[in-house]
């Protein structure tokens, strides 16, 4: 049973409702797609909203925001006296370490891994022996003296907890974090490393409020309702600069808020004292100590510039925060109403094609290329099972797209009436199951489908061009972790 946060008007905590509306306007005008927003000040929620079909209780892929959860598990183990920050990795993992470790590897500690100071220039691709592979990766620089963003190292943090406690990240955090701070562990999902370990470097799905609760623990110095969960010194180290990250500018020059230093899987920010948990494509939970405020955001931002745009807009919003209580006015009511009505733009409606009736029930067999409704997630550790055959059943509402793979048959409902149809696909073991779809005939012989996996940032557009007894399919998605461009499939 979790204690709900108090909900109040922005003016009661010194924020003008108009400032929040202007903030939302700026976010919506930017090149990002907003999914969820929560603003807390003085421990009270003063604004929250989700752009439908996203929703407050719906988990969302966190990408590297997961890293802060993994670091929190290490921090709890440190607080409990189970591990030390100066412990060497070769002592924690003697079986996986080289028989003759290098001098730099001998120096590599838990603290170095926490602050991206592993001293490596590369990180290994995950295999079943990924811990061994990590420890056999050359430690080129003395640990703690250089910075390299190392997601496999972040997953090592979970492996350290597992080695010390015998529990994986989910089991360990359920008892020591989730249930204590009001996160429902049954709603959490994970992607896994090849050996079954949770992917601490980016494999978690949680709600916007889950992330806000996590970072509130840090904002409150590691104490939750009078109980110390994280040691005070751990929180201080985690939320202050432990490793200069200026070299991020080499590979990511547009992400200027990444050049300002790194704590324990937490980034430093441009405004003095501000820090954030950060996941790719714009999963932010920002802590602003001077304003006693937290801002949690889920969005889809493609590329560093778009995510940086969200941060820049947020820093402008912070400048408007005042300390005194403000008089309430009609803007508060208007903001409340607006937050209840947030929505992604509706799909475009187009005239149906006369070809639709001729296609009904015809079975197409994929001849070349890989066809799937899914968007490949590099954190999943598994390949997409391709569609072997498919057919359409068109009607006045849209169509049923019926697919058959080696694993299963799926019937996906696609709206063509200016709405989106929701589909629950897969099984309980799947990390993401909610798929919403819309489609339209863009030409007499071209049908386009938009597939949105709502528990992620990922969308896919499949364009079916019917000609010469075949269908030529173009597959385009917004996956920020691949750059192979549109994929072409042919079926007969």
From TrEMBL:
For the keyword Lipid metabolism, the answer is no
Q: Which regions span the lipid bilayer?
A: none
Q: Name the keywords, alphabetized.
A: Hydrolase
Molecular function (Gene Ontology), one example: hydrolase activity
What are the residue boundaries of the Beta-lactamase-related domain, all occurrences included?
A: 37-297
- InterPro entries named in the record: Beta-lactam-related, Beta-lactam/transpept-like, Diverse_Enzym_Activities
Q: What is this protein called?
A: Serine hydrolase
């Amino acid at each position: 049973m979790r204690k709900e946060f108090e909900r109040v008007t922005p003016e009661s905590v010194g924020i003008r409702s108009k400032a929040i509306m202007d903030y939302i306007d700026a976010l919506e005008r930017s090149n990002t797609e907003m999914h969820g927003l929560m603003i807390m000040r003085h421990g009270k929620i003063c604004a929250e909203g989700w752009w439908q079909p996203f929703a407050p209780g719906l988990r969302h892929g966190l990408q590297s925001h997961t890293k802060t959860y993994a670091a929190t598990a290490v921090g709890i183990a440190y607080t409990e006296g189970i591990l030390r920050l100066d412990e060497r990795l070769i002592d924690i993992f003697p079986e996986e370490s080289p028989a003759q470790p290098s001098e730099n590897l001998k120096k590599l500690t838990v603290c170095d891994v926490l602050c991206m100071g592993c001293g490596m220039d590369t990180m290994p691709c995950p295999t079943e022996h990924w811990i061994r592979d990590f420890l056999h990766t050359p430690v080129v620089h003395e640990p703690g003296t250089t910075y390299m963003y190392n997601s496999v190292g972040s997953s090592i943090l979970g492996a350290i907890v597992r080695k010390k406690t015998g529990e994986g990240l989910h089991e360990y955090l359920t008892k020591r974090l989730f249930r204590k701070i009001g996160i429902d562990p049954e709603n959490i999902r994970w992607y896994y490393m090849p050996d079954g370990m949770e992917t601490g470097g980016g494999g978690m799905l949680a709600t916007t409020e889950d992330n806000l609760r996590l970072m509130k623990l840090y904002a409150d110095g590691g104490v939750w309702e009078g109980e110390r969960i994280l040691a005070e010194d751990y929180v201080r180290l985690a939320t202050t600069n432990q490793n200069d990250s200026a070299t991020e500018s080499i590979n990511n020059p547009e992400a200027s808020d990444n050049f300002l230093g790194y704590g324990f899987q937490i980034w430093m920010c441009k405004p003095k004292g501000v820090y954030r948990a950060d996941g790719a494509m714009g999963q932010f939970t920002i802590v602003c100590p001077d304003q006693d405020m937290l801002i949690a955001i889920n969005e889809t931002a493609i590329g560093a510039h778009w995510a940086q745009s969200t941060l820049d807009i947020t820093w402008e919003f912070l400048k408007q925060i005042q300390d005194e209580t403000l008089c309430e006015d009609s803007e508060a009511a208007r903001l409340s109403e607006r937050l209840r009505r947030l929505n992604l733009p509706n799909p475009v409606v187009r005239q149906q094609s006369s070809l639709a009736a001729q296609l009904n029930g015809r079975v197409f067999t994929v001849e070349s290329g890989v066809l799937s409704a899914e968007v490949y997630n590099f954190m999943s550790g598994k390949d997409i099972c391709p569609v072997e055959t498919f057919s359409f059943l068109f009607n006045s509402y849209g169509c049923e797209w019926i697919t058959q793979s080696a694993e299963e048959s799926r019937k996906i409902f696609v709206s063509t009436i200016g709405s989106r149809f929701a589909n629950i696909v897969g099984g309980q073991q799947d990390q993401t199951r909610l798929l919403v779809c819309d489609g339209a005939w863009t030409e007499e012989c071209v049908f386009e489908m938009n597939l949105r996996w709502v528990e992620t940032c990922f969308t896919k557009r499949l364009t079916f061009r019917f000609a010469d007894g075949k269908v030529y399919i173009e597959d385009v998605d917004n996956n920020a972790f691949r750059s192979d461009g549109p994929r072409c499939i042919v079926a007969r």
